[in-house]
From TrEMBL:
SUPFAM superfamilies registered for this protein in UniProt: ClpP/crotonase
Example of a GO cellular component annotation carried by this entry: cytosol
Name of the featured protein: 1,4-dihydroxy-2-naphthoyl-CoA synthase
GO MF, any single term: 1,4-dihydroxy-2-naphthoyl-CoA synthase activity
Record-level GO BP terms: menaquinone biosynthetic process
Pfam families per the UniProt record, alphabetical: ECH_1 (PF00378)
Length: 145
């Protein structure tokens, strides 16, 4: 079982750790939180296809049981295109089959948006065309059964 965490793009004006009581109750329930630096290893491609990731950055925290997937199209506000969805599927499948991973963090690069949805510049009348010009809503392919 993998837990998926959605981490939106942060606005530093909204973040505040000044609540002592909140921190005390968290510590009471969860114990001390490790303060060591996490070492992230970039996964350039999945083991099945050896195709390099171009639309996402896929990383695993060494010895932590955490994978992180960044949608890496900040110039398009991380709008997905068919290739992005295919890469997300490959990364999620890799994390699902890696018994050392228990949590996947999904986020987007840049400060403008986590993900603005499908890239409308690539959309045709019946969705996003594949290499056979057949339209579909590719993001539905991300559903895991």
């Amino acid at each position: 079982m993998i837990t998926l965490l959605f981490i939106p793009t942060t606005n530093s004006n909204l973040a505040s750790d000044s609540s002592t009581s909140r921190n005390d109750s968290y510590k009471h329930v969860h114990g001390d939180v490790p303060s060591h630096d996490v070492v992230w290893r970039v996964i350039a491609s999945d083991t099945d296809s050896d195709k390099e990731f171009t639309d996402i950055i896929y990383e695993k925290a060494v010895g932590e049981g955490i994978a992180k997937i960044n949608i890496n199209r900040p110039e398009r506000r991380n709008a997905f295109r068919p290739n992005t969805v295919k890469e997300l599927i490959r990364a999620f499948n890799d994390a699902r089959h890696d018994s050392s991973i228990g949590v996947v963090i999904l986020t987007g690069k840049g400060t403008k948006a986590f993900c603005s949805g499908g890239d409308q510049a690539l959309r045709i009348a019946d969705g996003y065309s594949d290499n056979k010009d057949i339209g579909s809503l590719n993001v539905l392919d991300l559903q895991v059964y």
